[in-house]
Amino acid sequence: MGSAARDLPDIERLRLRALVTADTGAAAPLHADDYQLITPNGSELTKDDYLRAIESGQLRYRVFEAVSDIAVLGDAPVAVLRYQARISFDEGPGLICWHTDCYRQRDNRWQVVWSQATAIA
After folding, report:
1. Which of these, 119, 58, 57, 55, lies nearest to 86 by C-alpha position?
2. pLDDT digits (tens, 9 = 90+) for 80-107
3. What pLDDT does 77 receive?
4. Which region, left, alpha or beta, applies to residue 70 given φ > 0 means left and ψ of -120 to 50 means alpha?
5. How far apart are CA 43 and CA 61, in angstroms?
6. 104-113 burial code (b ≥16 CB/10 A, e <16)
7. pTM, full prediction
């Protein structure tokens, strides 16, 4: 088992917890400076836009968790994660989506570079 398959599922879960708790201090180093998120509605957010929205409370996750195994394809320096996630912004059930993350390893540190979420109808 390569380092990506061993380490990245735990790193991704740590990142999701930081986003839910709005701990941008913990989340920031897990995101590359050139990070981009494509949301289920097709919006594009940069790292700064995303973390600023979380920090300000404009974007507030109540739940963001993997609800399937986190599959890992590849190994250092680039690996891709794919899993089903439940995302909720309020007390409602939220939505289930496919979530895909592209991670890059630099200076022995994994950082997410791209994320894409696709809602499951």
Report:
1. 119
2. 999 999 999 988 788 999 999 999 999 9
3. 94
4. beta
5. 16
6. bbeeeebbbb
7. 0.93
